[in-house]
């Protein structure tokens, strides 16, 4: 069974703390060795269900020291 297959509707909550700090420096709790941005996108793109709603959590603009990088990452997810 594929991720989300057979499900009528899916609510997605993306916790950007799961991303490696190289891709998401502006988060509340960094996770060295976390997922790459591409890994997270692949998971989302491989969902086989209808997404009915989504949110992005743990974005912390005060810790984003790389010219708004986390804002861009969060928006693209």
Descriptive notes:
- The protein has two helices and two strands.
- The chain is an alpha+beta fold and 77 residues long.
- It has a two-stranded parallel sheet with strand order 1-2.
- The model has no long low-confidence stretch (mean pLDDT 86).
Strand content of the residues, in percent? 15-25%
Mean pLDDT: 86
Largest β sheet strand count, sense and barrel closure: 2 strands, parallel
Kindly provide the radius of gyration, computed on alpha-carbon positions and rounded to a whole number of angstroms: 13 Å
Uncertain spans, ≥5 residues at pLDDT below 50?
Answer: none
Number of beta-strand segments: 2
Q: What is the 3D form?
A: elongated
Q: Between the first and last Cα atoms, what is the distance in angstroms?
A: 24 Å
């Amino acid at each position: 069974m594929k991720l989300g297959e057979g499900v009528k509707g899916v609510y997605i909550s993306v916790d950007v703390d799961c991303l490696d700090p190289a891709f998401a420096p502006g988060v509340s709790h960094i996770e060295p060795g976390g997922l790459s941005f591409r890994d997270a996108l692949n998971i989302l793109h491989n969902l086989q269900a209808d997404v009915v709603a989504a949110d992005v959590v743990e974005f912390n603009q005060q810790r984003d020291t790389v010219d708004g990088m986390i804002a861009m990452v969060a928006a693209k997810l």
